[in-house]
Amino acid sequence: MSNISPPRKRRKEARPSELSAAALDLFVEKGFAATRLEDVAQRAGVSKGTLYLYFDSKEALFKSVIEDGVVPVLVEGEEIASRHEGSAFELLEKLLANWWAGIGETSFAGIPKLMTAESRNFPELAQFYYENVIRRGRAQVASALERGIASGEFRKLDIETTIDVVIAPILMLVIWRYSMACCQGTQVDPQQYMAVHLTLLREGLKRTQV
Amino acid sequence: MSNISPPRKRRKEARPSELSAAALDLFVEKGFAATRLEDVAQRAGVSKGTLYLYFDSKEALFKSVIEDGVVPVLVEGEEIASRHEGSAFELLEKLLANWWAGIGETSFAGIPKLMTAESRNFPELAQFYYENVIRRGRAQVASALERGIASGEFRKLDIETTIDVVIAPILMLVIWRYSMACCQGTQVDPQQYMAVHLTLLREGLKRTQV
Amino acid sequence: MSNISPPRKRRKEARPSELSAAALDLFVEKGFAATRLEDVAQRAGVSKGTLYLYFDSKEALFKSVIEDGVVPVLVEGEEIASRHEGSAFELLEKLLANWWAGIGETSFAGIPKLMTAESRNFPELAQFYYENVIRRGRAQVASALERGIASGEFRKLDIETTIDVVIAPILMLVIWRYSMACCQGTQVDPQQYMAVHLTLLREGLKRTQV
Amino acid sequence: MSNISPPRKRRKEARPSELSAAALDLFVEKGFAATRLEDVAQRAGVSKGTLYLYFDSKEALFKSVIEDGVVPVLVEGEEIASRHEGSAFELLEKLLANWWAGIGETSFAGIPKLMTAESRNFPELAQFYYENVIRRGRAQVASALERGIASGEFRKLDIETTIDVVIAPILMLVIWRYSMACCQGTQVDPQQYMAVHLTLLREGLKRTQV
DNA sequence: AATGAATGAGGCTTCATTCAT
DNA sequence: AATGAATGAAGCCTCATTCAT
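^ inputs. structure came back:
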């Protein structure tokens, strides 16, 4: 009893994330410019003015959406990479599965689409995203590729470029889901999609016997 | 005689596409909502009012940008597919090279980013784009995959899903170029990227010898 | 006993004037409309809500600022006028000195600027100020002028108009101090200013010898 | 006929001053913060948006009001001072009469009140006003005082301070007119006011015979 | 009595759209 | 055909005011 904080206080602390979450949905759906703060407020169940108790401006809210959505990500992946003991390809599988569970299946899955759509209008934020998300994600994939090439499991490929090619289908999957997937006839089954991607990777990366 | 027209007339007929071209750049850079018609007009060297002589509204201009950008595409690809006589993988290579030459290297390369960013705000346009671009592009890839599977050159894979996985890296390449590529440290070399992608595909699609 | 009250109680009773005092500074500095209650509260060291325990509205606070600032004024001047026995000009000097000590040198000195800036937005308040401050101040000056004219010390001048001319430089002095005096090069020395003003008055009012 | 520009053009050129004039009235009446641009637009007979064709912001409009109101002033005064040949006091009279005709009786007469009310919120503008109006006005009065003191017509007084005392009643007259004069019982007759002021000055400045 | 989170009306500003020239 | 001045709806943001604690 005594260690339960009063609801008002709990609300105060929870508010910023509630507002960010509401904003994320709308930014992903409509883009930054086309999203009205009134709609964000309404979705969060507060008034327009309340947003300004927690964020200085629409732009500050946008930054918080990205930064907050980015925080919980990519930490576990780094641990997975450092602890892994099996084959390089198994590591790759684990990393992609982890990303899928932590991002692809959560509400943060809309962030890649949002960042690609808005990065030119928010260059500093794009840079921040690159440093804190993309670079770290790529490093994880790099560790698997390097391990596989070093052990002879994978063929010799340019690491940096291969990273791009490996992660592109996965990014495209979530981008697609938050964009064209609203059209008829464009449904994609993520399970099957990932299965095919992994199949192609498994065989594509495998060192060709001489 | 036939290919010479008076400059005045040529100008008049060319206006709409000049305006569309100017608009494409800005829509790709800023998104639909954040693009100001004043800037479009200025880039095209006309006044704001002139835009309305050719387009009913900002939305109509946007549709024209997409539709104009779509017209010259994918026609040649279909001919390539129907005339092809070599291996299935060679066909795939030709198709991707054709797309790259006709879209990836032109100013239309920004359209995929634009469509993913705006499709939810323009569902009918997204549907149109899907029917006229995506479906046809996928059909071309499908014809190569089907041919390869039928001949035993490719392993058996779900066609629709494999199409997705095959084209995703290419779409991602151009999306990247018009978004995060503005950041430092994010440069991608398209030649090398395509080379790696094709390598992985070649080996990944190849039927595993029993 | 009589002059010691418990701090708690003193505080409670002192609150309204503390708040008025804080508000006066800001109203003088920024004007009524541009002053934010949040700033008033902060300067008084209370929360915004507390203001509403003592004042019904921003407008009520403004009225209180003026009315509070008006209370301690002009009482002594009337006594001075009624008790005076020397020359008319000496009375005039005493009255102006009294005003300067009671208003010109206190924090109430900003009120003339504030009233001139806001009187049109608060006509009833302006009327109140006129009745309770201006009219009484003018009456004091009038008594000195009348006495001097009656005794032949001063030349014959229209009393009402002369009052205006006599007090204008003094009002202007405090208005100036709270407005343009923030600029470089606009410093005025009140002592010297008053000395010159009195010199001009002494000679200007003196009846010309025939 | 041929040298009459088309109405549209004439309007375009006349607009800024029309808007400034409308804004001056309202700024003087209500102050900067309390004046709504919608009211300014309405008084000028245009829409709110039109203001932004000519002024970047409310603050820019305010600056223009002051700067435009300042331009036509004080030029003639300087010529009067340089051409004058009579007594010093006659010069002083001419200068004050000129100021009255050029400012005191025009719609610019509200500017002194406006500047005193807002100078603290617009320090650079206040500085500009000081440099371009106040300093020049004071210099004109200074030239009359110096001439009178040098010739023995005036008593010896500190020039700078005397300037203040000489112009204060005149400034106060227009400030009063645009502020408290809205109250009952506060009417001032400018002619009589100036007459008394000049009488006091004439006798007050005059060198006392030894 | 005091707080400060929350509200929502209202103002400044932008920009798609219109229309007289 | 082309212009660009003008409009006014709509969005961001501020801040006086309220009220649960």
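Residues 36-38, 48-49, 52, 57-58 of chain C lie near DNA strand F (CB under 10 Å from a C1'). Residues 1-9 of chain C have pLDDT under 50 and may be disordered.
thumbs up if we can close this ticket
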